[in-house]
Design goal:
Length: about 425
């Protein structure tokens, strides 16, 4: 069994976390990054951190020394919450981050579970967090088969994590279009057809041998100059489950390595398009339900919250383009809490205004923001608890733009109708 592919939500989360972390910069060399692979003993890592704490006592600057040691203590505390290292390993970042100019540093700590197993065991103290090993995981991991062909020959290649793994070339043995003198035209044509058929069968056999045993084969790209590739595509030369995986048929100038290079250059664009096609399909399904008033679609924050809580959501569609947050306000005297949704950029003014407001329950002036959550993250968590599928939709397609602009970026396909 191949492992399940990473969901659009997992990728979105990691990307967002890394974008946020990449912006963090320490005052000096005082941000701690820790990568622990699965199988490492927690006690061993804690011992290493104790040593690092000791070494840090030699730092001359009082502030830097305190910040580094505080960060190490935080990492130790977080690490102790784990009995063992999770199967993909564990990554912890901690450090004093200036919030608003020098002197405003606040200790921030982040614990991440990688999407795939990490292999490095690393402790670093630097002016920035070390993100490169996690950034690697955002790269395309699935494999794509490439078949290039024309009447003269074919090449096969396997594209995996941006690397080319297999390259094989075969020739067709099909004679050119011009017959030798003295040969009957019909007989020549028949022979050529037979040779071509035999070649197509051989291409299919090669492709089956190479690609059927490839784990995580996400798709096949067919290319070459002229119409031969289309004739091949129409026939049943590939095993049906490979044929279903053809995601693009493209014109290339060459069928050899140069042709493979042509495909490689266009691969990111091709793969993005494949995802856009998936996104369009998801959105079209939603729009169909809306257009036909089937009652099996819903949108808007309140409606979706209600549908999620009733377990009615089959698939949650969230736009990557929304910047709405869910803010929890808490009274520090009586514990009264209130949750509100707002634009990300309104938070600062909202916090300022809170200082002058009175608690609706005890009337004291002690209201403060206690939690801020991305609405995508908040809804996705509710969905995950209900075993509901979540798809992140980019704003790169017309349908994706509609989701963001016409439906508030939050929509769902329902399992059953909800009465209102
Ligand atoms: Zn109160």
């Amino acid at each position: 069994m191949s492992k399940p592919e990473r969901t659009s939500l997992e990728l979105f989360r990691l990307k967002k976390a890394l974008d946020t972390l990449a912006k963090k910069e320490g005052r000096g060399t005082e941000l701690v990054s820790l990568y622990v692979p699965h199988g490492k003993q927690i006690s061993e890592v804690l011992a290493m951190l104790r040593d690092e704490y000791g070494t840090a006592s030699n730092i001359k600057s009082d502030t830097t020394r305190k910040n580094v040691q505080d960060a190490i203590v935080k990492v130790q505390q977080r690490l102790k919450l784990f009995k063992q290292v999770p199967k993909n390993g564990l990554v912890i970042f901690s450090g004093a981050i200036p919030q608003n100019g020098p002197g405003s540093e606040r200790l921030e700590t982040y614990v991440l579970e990688p999407l795939e197993p990490i292999k490095v065991y690393l402790y670093r103290c630097d002016a920035k967090f070390h993100l490169e090993y996690l950034q690697d995981q955002l790269r395309e991991k699935e494999a794509y088969g490439i078949i290039l062909m024309d009447a003269n020959g074919a090449s096969f290649a396997l594209l995996k994590s941006k690397h080319l793994e297999v390259l094989q070339e075969i020739t067709s043995g099909v004679p050119g279009k011009h017959r030798a003198g003295g040969q009957s035209a019909r007989r020549f044509e028949r022979q050529r057809e037979a040779k071509l058929l035999e070649f197509f069968n051989r291409v299919g056999k090669h492709a089956n041998e190479i690609f059927l045993q490839t784990l995580d084969l996400k798709g096949i790209i067919l290319g070459g100059p002229g119409p031969t590739k289309y004739d091949f595509e129409k026939g049943d030369y590939l095993q049906y489950n490979l044929k279903d995986k053809i995601i693009a048929v493209l014109d290339t100038a060459y069928v050899d390595e140069q042709g493979v290079d042509e495909i490689m250059e266009r691969a990111p664009e091709i793969l993005r398009k494949v995802r856009y096609v998936e996104e369009k399909k998801l959105m079209q399904d939603f729009l169909y339900q809306i257009g036909h008033d089937t009652g099996l679609a819903s949108y808007g924050e309140d409606e979706i919250r209600h549908a999620l809580n009733t377990g009615a959501v089959k698939m949650l569609l969230l736009s990557e383009g929304i910047d709405i947050i869910r803010v929890t306000t808490k009274c520090n005297v009586c514990g009264y809490t209130l949750q509100e949704t707002m634009k990300e950029q309104s938070l600062h003014v909202f916090e300022q205004n809170l200082l002058e407001q009175h608690c609706p329950k005890c009337n004291s002036q002690s209201l403060a923001v206690s939690e801020v959550k991305d609405i995508v993250e908040e809804l996705a968590e509710i969905a995950e608890h209900a075993n509901t599928e979540v798809e992140m939709i980019s704003t790169e397609t017309e349908e994706g733009q509609m989701l963001k602009n016409s439906f508030g970026g939050i929509a769902a396909i329902l399992r059953f109708k909800l009465s209102r």
